[in-house]
């Protein structure tokens, strides 16, 4: 049914494009996908993109299948894309090892998910039915008296009030005033995707970057775009289409010019970012290359990823990444990779698998760290070599997901910094500081006090194993790096040490009293443990299904497994492989002309039905 609907949508896009936004709005309203005002706003903004996307969907290939699987979860099993074997410029050196510690240290700042809301208004409803609250929505306000008035310092279902954002920047000056440099892993703009305009996005970015510069002064900040930093939200074409109908050049020009003006990147790097979807490379310090990715190019909510689904790397993102990593290997320099969303969750399977292979090829001797945000959580993910059985020896790198400034999603605001080896750029320790606005925010407001930012924890102190000698991978010394084996050991201990796991959960939400509970043996516990060691979305899905089913067999499972069909399986258990679609439908090299004739006849029938 979904696939037939996609054919009708393509017919509309080709023959009556002006009707597409209204049609999508009416469907949204009829089936109550969103609030009425949200339906109106979203489809008004997404309409031009959808017209172009629908008109180019290859419905005789895998595009329509992907679109149904991700846009309408449950309508089709999620496909597995088996990328072709990667061919690297050179084989991995024998006995590639992380360089030994130098004994010298620096500090590096990391903050993420700013999501400042210039329309935040104290006293408005903090528990509303909109996607974000703490605003006056006028005639779209919820009826009845206000349940909880929005406080000055933020609420759990609201984006960042300007006062809290400034407080976070002041906390940076308190904890890491001498940072060698800083990284910001994306999401400047608020979550009101149905209300924003291009000008709103531009203004939010301009003013926020100006504020960062004002407080960080001479500390250089390197920035990745988030999915909310585009217009419309989440959308980014990976390449110019043959009949170009949409472009994000305005966005890439806009942000690159600001980054250059703030003296964060050079003019050459800015020009590269403008022509490469905001991806750029820079060298913050001698011996270190920082590679910034635009992660919208593999995000499942970016509808442009539903085009060219039979290709492994349609945007060329991973091709460019490999070239840069090989260049650094040849030079003998270390690399940090940063972006908004790590391709180990909420990404297309093909991108997730490619990223894992690339990280395994260039770790641990080249890639010294992987830094992302997006989930608002303070967490980490151990990356494994896919060619080895998963275990301590297969752990090759670690994804550091930075905590958010926004309290949205029941989080306290947090910032992070790293103790870093000044020569090898390996991570020696991570620190997180928070302001507990969930517990004390109202009192601070009543007493006219500023938020109190405190050092919450350090990873080395929390996760080191005291039962083994210091200097081992599970209990590193003060100047030893936090190796992938250190993090692997921490996860393995959490599986049996409930106290340590509860501490991880507490710090994941930045000690929020409003964090969602995660009971023992629940689906939440299984998913959390799986995500800490799943290098791809496919591995995460398989791990979660297996863990929950095992718990149910043991009589411990308190929740059923996710009803959504797992990756790549139909209800009969047959594997769904996108490359098979063309063969199944007769679209081979010799059958393209016949398929085209068939498609034309189908289009004519659709016209008659329309």
TrEMBL record:
GO MF: hydrolase activity, acting on glycosyl bonds; metal ion binding; sphingomyelin phosphodiesterase activity
Name its co-factor(s): Zn(2+)
Any one cellular-component term (Gene Ontology):
extracellular space
Q: Which residues form the Calcineurin-like phosphoesterase domain?
A: 107-376
* Keyword Zinc carried by entry: yes
Report the record's disulfide bonds. Answer: 28-39, 128-133, 134-158
Where are the residues of the annotated region Disordered?
Answer: 554-574
Its function, per the record, reads:
Converts sphingomyelin to ceramide.
Against PANTHER family, the record matches this protein to: ACL091CP (PTHR10340:SF27), SPHINGOMYELIN PHOSPHODIESTERASE (PTHR10340)
Question: What name has this protein been given in UniProt?
Answer: Sphingomyelin phosphodiesterase
